[in-house]
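Example 397, ligand P-hydroxybenzoic acid.
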Amino acid sequence: MPTCTPERTQVGIVGAGPAGLMLSHLLGRAGIESIVIDLRSRDEIEHTHRAGILEQGSVDLLVDRGVSDRVHRDGYRHNGIELAFGGSGHRIDFQGLAGASTQLYPQTDVFIDLANARERDGGDVRFAVTDVSVDGLTSDSPTIRFTDSNGAAHEIRADFLVGADGSRSLCRHQVPEAECTQYFREYPFAWFGILTEAPPSAPELIYNHSPYGFALISQRTSKLQRMYFQCDPGENVDDWSDDRIWDQLQTRLGANGYTLKEGPITSKTVLPFRSFVQEPMHHGRMALAGDAAHTVPPTGAKGLNLALADVRVLAEELERAVRSHDAAPLATYTQRAVARVWKSQHFSYWMTTMLHTLPDASPFDTRRQEGELASVTGSVAGSTYLAEAYTGWPGSK
Ligand code: PHB
């Protein structure tokens, strides 16, 4: 192993997805140095399709903190969604019920904006590294070691570390079992996700419950659409021809009176479903943020929004920690972040179980689910909860 001179920084961040880059950006604005590393190349992250809905608070964070205003120009404002079941669609009017909207703007674009902003502001982001390890989390100088994309070994000594390294987090695994609690829930289904070169089939998202299973109709642009349908977690994309996919989607949407506009399918992936939280969201001088600390199933599009909400709080607490040379603000981060984490966990779980077809559902389960959907869409109180949670609890801190 070649020797290297250790580098110093104030905050070492593992993971250059939206959480890691936004954190580095916010710290930079507060005059705090950071180095961000990622195992993936920039190109690989840019081409991983993820969810596409931003809460108002996420849009504000991107715009007000000077990342980009492209989200307004290239995104699409949505003032509601359709919940389709029992033969027809039922609109949830976000503006009327919660005075808020969402913005259709894919996570890959959020990543591109953040990576460009870090480059513009002279941020230190190193993609495509290998052999990452973290060490000394409870010491005064936690360390990240890695090999850069040219094969050179590096050691970074930081005042604080952040694991923003996604659901298969390496950082999370450094927390001793006795020091944390992990909460899990598995689901007996997954989503089959596609991108299709077709015009939009609807102006807003359709969350479609049907006897044939759940489907979600989302959009990307006037020429590219994103759609999902509930499938078995073991499904293999190679078994699904375009015709077979369109047949499934048309049958599910047709049950509620919709017809989809078809086009060539350019991407097919199976997305696993899982709910997970690790508490506390810090250990010694390391904090966890985004999917490294918690995973939500994709129904309701909370994952990215929750990650951005984490780092908004974490940047404030890390600023205190760096300035006071004290790890106590990391405990305050956990305290402040965790309340939103569990509200988002509940909302994602609730949307998931309300809308999907359970493989072993009894006739009672099915009829009860229809009763639940009717209770939500038929009541101002019921639909207001959905509107507030979906748009990100407007006014909450
Ligand atoms: C998406 O557009 O990818 C999307 C939208 C809403 C969700 C999940 C994914 O709940």
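Summary: The chain has two domains: 7-52+106-180+280-351, 184-273+358-390.
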